[in-house]
Amino acid sequence: MAPNFIFPPKLTALEDDHHDDGSLSAHNPAEILSLRPSQLEEFVKGVSFDLSDKEIFCIEEQDLFDRVFSLVKGFSSLSPTCKFNLVESLRSNLSVLLPNVDSLSRASQAENDDEGSVLDRITSHRNAFKIYTFYLIHVVLIEESNISSNNISKVAASSRKKLPINSWHWELQRGRILNLIANSLEINLSLLFGSSDPDENYLSFIAKNAFSLFENGTLLKDSETKEALCRIIGTCATKYHYTAQSCASILHLIHKYDFVITHLADAVAGAEKKYADGSLATSLIREIGRSNPKDYVKDTVGAENIGRFLVELADRLPKLISTNIGLLVPHFAGESYKIRNALVGVLGKLVGKALKDVEGEVSSKSNRLRTKQAMLEILVERCRDVSAYTRSRVLQVWAELCEEHSISIGLWNEVATVAAGRLEDKSAIVRKSALNLLIMMLQHNPFGPQLRIASFEATLEQYKKKLKELEPNAASESILDGISSDNDTCNGDGEVDNVDAEVVSKEHPESLTDSCLPQVEGGINQEDSSVPDLGNLEQTRTLVASLEAGLRFSQCVSATMPTLVQLMASASATDVENTILLLMRCKQFQIDGSEACLRKMLPLVFSQDKSIYEAVENAFINIYVVRNNPVETAKNLLYLAIDSNIGDLAALEFIVGALVSKGDITASMISSLWDFFCFNISGTSAEQSRGALSVLCMAAKSSTGILGSHLQDIIDIGFGRWAKVEPLLARTACLALQRLSEEDKKKLLLSNGSRVFGLLESLVTGFWLPENGWYAAADKAIGAAYAIHPRPETLAADLVKKSLRSVFNCSVGDELQNDIDNGNTNVLTTVQVTNLSRYLFVASQVAMNQLVYIESCVRKIQKEKSKKEKLDAEGQNVQNNSTAAVDASKDNSINAELGIAASEDAMLDTLSERTEKEIVSGGSSEKNLIGHCASFLSKLCRNFGLMQKYPELQASAMLALCCFMIIDAEFCDANLQLLFTVVESSPSETVRSNCTIALGDLAVRFPNLLEPWTENVYARLRDASVSVRKNAVLVLSHLILNDMMKVKGYIYEMAMRLEDEDERISNLAKLFFHELSKKGNNPIYNLLPDMLGKLSNVNLKRDSFCNIMQFLIGSIKKDKQMESLVEKLCIRFGGVTDGRQWEYISYCLSQLAFTEKSVKKLIESFKTYEHVLSEDSVMDNFRNIINKTKKFAKPELKSCIEEFEEKLVKFHIEKKEQERTAQNAETHKQKLSSLENFVAAKNGEDSSDSEIVEDASDAEVTDPLMEGVAQSAHDVSKSNVEFDEQSLSESSSGLTESETCENEVQSPTIRSRGRRKLKYGH
């Protein structure tokens, strides 16, 4: 009988250890490397022949064993054919051996006589089994090692069929070998090894090599190989009780490699499913539960991998994990957020799978429900986790549960409330998860497809009445009695039945999103409609509870609308995109307020972030563009245009133009808009007609030919009787005329030119439009005249003259001006204020449009000139050899030398300046039409008495004055002081607001003239009016961010608006500083010290100051700038003596993001601030700095920080002692003074009454506490005792705290603070 085979630690050990024991080993291995290829091939064929020809036990023979050993040892050097032959021989023999083991088992039961022969056969089978297994696994290890080292590419699985049967394909062979090994573990090995568990040596060899193969990620991509390895691991651990070692190896692999997680989870789940034994999974959970939570803080990769493994395991074995979840719950208290994330995911899997079905015995059912409730409570609690990642993961789990319909109606509103609250989380990932959760809750809500609050309230009221009828004896009883606290019914066994969800979802069993009760919707709007009779009191109660839950859910989502509007202004693109998606879902379910919020989405089309623009565009198309219904699309667009403000209209125009260009707004939709405008659709109102024309004007920006097809309709309807019904219709018609293409303008002039100009003139000079619509219409009418008239200045002059005649006769114009000069207000009794306001408006708008017209003419001339030069250059290149070309080139060169081209440009500029100047002043002794108006207007605006009497006239007059100032520099300079006087002192908020906006235009037009008035411009930020402050912030933001105004020392005024009482202004100021921080090298860094000084000296609350500085410092990101700020702020300590400023400077220091260098700089600058450490508030700020820096400090720096802390504390105590001593000395000095005065009073008792009165008038008030020692004090004064240092200190120490307070002894710091309060109190 052959010696017993023992698995060696490695293959080569078979050569080394054959003399040590009686085990089978390699005695005479062949040197196959020395063989020629042909000899090697013959050698392999011989081995294969022997293995196939002889019995399967022949592998025990020493000669064959040695030869196979030699081939396996040099397997990497074999040719593919030799490899295939050897592997096929070994694999086929082992596959034949496995059935023989089963037959051997039957033979052993039958042949009870010959036990010796049976034992011999068992030994031979065991030896052969182990040898074949040993060699085949080493073939796999050697080949995999060879592939990894040489980076041999694998052949795709799809090419397997194309290969010949006897060709070498390693992936196929590997899968077969490992599957054979896995099958070998499933036979009756107890007979071979003599016990229920195989030899430890054998199991160790199999498991160790299986786990080593698991470390190869490429190998696991082959499904056959992966499945075989999973079977091997599961069988060893479960069937043969190799659990402890397998657990250790599995956990090691999980900690080390992330790609093994899902495969190992498959192996563990497969073992439990196959053998109905969860010991391996339980052992793993127990080991993970035993681990120290602190270990996962440093091992972040291991924590993440363990977490993923637990989630995968919970997904595959939910019921087993649910019974062992108590082992993992303590890890919720650990510091590793990744483990907490995983546990949250595990709970979600368990709630969704293990505890979903509640069938079975009553006791187990009740236990599962209690367990589920406990898990849900943990999930709700974890929504407030300290880690943003965990909070986000919890919300994601809730979304998954919602999608799986695993949230009861009783818990629905609690989850919705949590999600709504997390919308304001400081972390963007949490906000994203909260938005997605709300989207999912709306999509899978159990209350119906329409969630209007009014509908729920009406239906609920009806069913409440029905419920009262069903229970007349319980009027005072609560409706919710008899149902559980979470609105679910509860039976006697503690089981919660979601009856209402079942009733609600009868029509749509696949989704709980569609119906609340089929009969309910039809009866919502009919008060006296009959309520469907459910017939059962309990069902009616359940339905009422469901309706109440639905109402609360609708109210909860509706209450989030203000938050969603804020999120649309978020700097995070994901916030904006997900908010838009949520609002789309809200509109789909008709949530109250969603329509208004969606309109606030429109300005986001101007976002520079492409993803945000695409999100807005997609949402717009999905909501407002109905592809199969052009009329509905037209109606949606025109209503948008009607209800939008100016900002929304600009955004709507942009997006409509883009959609027209892309073809998303089709010709049929444009045709439907024309039908609405022309009243071709029944029921169309004048307002709808105006909205349709407005949308058509927007579309005309991208497709200029849209308006040309209905020119006559625009004239007839826009200026006809409908314009009197809808005043803005005329304005929109004028805008349409401006948007006409050049061809359409020519066509209009030829066909209806005179009529159109007559209509425009009547609109401007007539009185058929109401006052509130005339100004907007006249503005566009004047613009339309300049856009389409060939000589617009003639028509404009007629407009001004006719408007003037409507005010008064021209012959008395000089008399009117004289009366204005003399301050005679009676003149306006003969002049209507309304007509005068209109005249001033017309004159100013004509002047502005004339300026724009001149600039457009100059641009046209320049464009024509450049075009001509370009054509000349091209002609010169074409005719290079012609005589004309030579002459032309000579002329051009002569012109260039003489500077004729430059002189032409200069002449054009001169003409442009002259024409612009002539608009207002003319530059001559005789003023032109507008010039007369400007002179009159200037004097009118200076008559403040008249202006205050007629505020509407002042508004028009100041607007006109600002227009003239923008046009002419001389006129502007002459009236600047007037403008600033009005903007500061006018009682009208509208006038001040308009003038503030005009200041911005003037600063752009004439920056040098406005530069000396910069302080006055910034002063508008302190105006009492919210409108004026808002416009001032907008104007200054525009000027500064576009480099049209230098940032000067008054920028602190803008910083104060960060804490403005109006939230809109505060947000605009924040946006300004956010954009300013992006410019250049961040100007805020240079401005911060100066702003700190200015803000410290103004009457600003401490909390407001702290919030302002915190925001400004937060916008500085560079480490170098932070380090420099530390030095600058430390230096400022020496320049101020006010304790409040010391506190403010130290607070700013505490807000900086410290680095190692900045900490060292702070320590080095100790001398600059040691004198301020006596202040407790200053010391608190330095303590905050120390606590902050300790968190990131390395050991060396940490020791320096600790020394610095000790030094600070020491100086703080010393300074406090010095201050206390100084206070005590001051108190004692005051006491001595009072004693001396008292003695002097005693000495003068015998003097005359007049002297007593005189002394009393000069004396100081004596402390009442000292009256009891008057005589002793008198003796002391007589003996002239001198106080030494010891007695002084004793006297000082004898003072109590109450005495100090009563005598009001204060430190210099406190006194200076009091003085400052007094100063600003006045």
From TrEMBL:
<dbReference type="GO" id="GO:0042393">
    <property type="term" value="F:histone binding"/>
</dbReference>
<feature type="coiled-coil region">
    <location>
        <begin position="1201"/>
        <end position="1235"/>
    </location>
</feature>
<dbReference type="GO" id="GO:0005634">
    <property type="term" value="C:nucleus"/>
</dbReference>
<dbReference type="GO" id="GO:0010032">
    <property type="term" value="P:meiotic chromosome condensation"/>
</dbReference>
<keyword id="KW-0498">Mitosis</keyword>
<feature type="region of interest" description="Disordered">
    <location>
        <begin position="1266"/>
        <end position="1322"/>
    </location>
</feature>
<dbReference type="GO" id="GO:0000779">
    <property type="term" value="C:condensed chromosome, centromeric region"/>
</dbReference>
<dbReference type="GO" id="GO:0000796">
    <property type="term" value="C:condensin complex"/>
</dbReference>
<keyword id="KW-0132">Cell division</keyword>
<keyword id="KW-0226">DNA condensation</keyword>
<dbReference type="GO" id="GO:0051301">
    <property type="term" value="P:cell division"/>
</dbReference>
<dbReference type="InterPro" id="IPR007673">
    <property type="entry name" value="Condensin_cplx_su1"/>
</dbReference>
<feature type="domain" description="Condensin complex subunit 1 C-terminal">
    <location>
        <begin position="990"/>
        <end position="1150"/>
    </location>
</feature>
<keyword id="KW-0158">Chromosome</keyword>
<feature type="compositionally biased region" description="Low complexity">
    <location>
        <begin position="1288"/>
        <end position="1298"/>
    </location>
</feature>
<keyword id="KW-0175">Coiled coil</keyword>
<dbReference type="InterPro" id="IPR024324">
    <property type="entry name" value="Condensin_cplx_su1_N"/>
</dbReference>
<feature type="domain" description="Condensin complex subunit 1 N-terminal">
    <location>
        <begin position="81"/>
        <end position="244"/>
    </location>
</feature>
<dbReference type="Pfam" id="PF12717">
    <property type="entry name" value="Cnd1"/>
</dbReference>
<dbReference type="InterPro" id="IPR026971">
    <property type="entry name" value="CND1/NCAPD3"/>
</dbReference>
<comment type="function">
    <text>Regulatory subunit of the condensin complex, a complex required for conversion of interphase chromatin into mitotic-like condense chromosomes. The condensin complex probably introduces positive supercoils into relaxed DNA in the presence of type I topoisomerases and converts nicked DNA into positive knotted forms in the presence of type II topoisomerases.</text>
</comment>
<dbReference type="InterPro" id="IPR011989">
    <property type="entry name" value="ARM-like"/>
</dbReference>
<protein>
    <recommendedName>
        <fullName>Condensin-1 complex subunit CAP-D2</fullName>
    </recommendedName>
</protein>
<dbReference type="Pfam" id="PF12922">
    <property type="entry name" value="Cnd1_N"/>
</dbReference>
<comment type="similarity">
    <text>Belongs to the CND1 (condensin subunit 1) family.</text>
</comment>
<dbReference type="InterPro" id="IPR016024">
    <property type="entry name" value="ARM-type_fold"/>
</dbReference>
<feature type="compositionally biased region" description="Basic residues">
    <location>
        <begin position="1312"/>
        <end position="1322"/>
    </location>
</feature>
<keyword id="KW-0539">Nucleus</keyword>
<dbReference type="GO" id="GO:0007076">
    <property type="term" value="P:mitotic chromosome condensation"/>
</dbReference>
<dbReference type="InterPro" id="IPR032682">
    <property type="entry name" value="Cnd1_C"/>
</dbReference>
<keyword id="KW-0131">Cell cycle</keyword>
<feature type="coiled-coil region">
    <location>
        <begin position="854"/>
        <end position="881"/>
    </location>
</feature>
